[in-house]
Design a protein that fits this description.
single chain, 248 residues, alpha/beta, Undecaprenyl pyrophosphate synthetase
Amino acid sequence: MIPHRLAPLRRGGHVALGIGGIEAWASLHRESAGAAHASSVLNVRRIAAASRELGIHTLTLYALPPRLWDHSPARLTEALAAWTAWLRAEATALRAGGTRLTVIGRRDRLPSRLHATIRRAEVLTAPGRRARLRLAIDYSARRAFERARSLLERGGPGCTFDEALAQAIHDVEPTRPVDLVVLTGGEEEPDDALFWEFAYAPVVRTGTLWPDFDPATLRAILGRTLASDTPSVRGRDPAPLAMGAPAP
């Protein structure tokens, strides 16, 4: 019997969300970049809560892509400050709700305050088993592979690639492959992201800007995607899905 590719999602699998359209949202609403980032992080709370209610166990959010470090220092500072404030404010609530927070990506370019805030939040929420929230911050798959290769060369015969890769991106425990990818804000592809994790996952692209992406939209995407689930053979890449396109 050939398994359906979305069967794990029906049992509470792993959804990856690309945060896109923040600049467009700022322009549309005539808001500053700082206000846009503040709205972006506030939306994480409601989407994380909605994902738990919908039965999603692991939610990965591509929060701060590496390209942000190529923008102006002022814009980068605003984005980092918004996420620092969110982590400090939400860690206790995540723990109370049984959600474990982990942050993947490089940390050598993060300001010390954000670095310390991440560590506190990860330690505080470590007991969580109901759900898992992963934030990809300054995450680059290319750099992760390079770092993992370096660790393997120094790690000896007992070190596996999976272990080296987890260490390279600060992933504290094994994560199941992504079952569904949702790209918001008209994004076509996530920035240099976890392609080996979602090599076989369907991709849904929506023009909804991330600050406006609400639980109802997530629920509709899940319903439509699960309804379109068809058997597939592992090793054959399923065709991407686009919002508004007929189900395969």
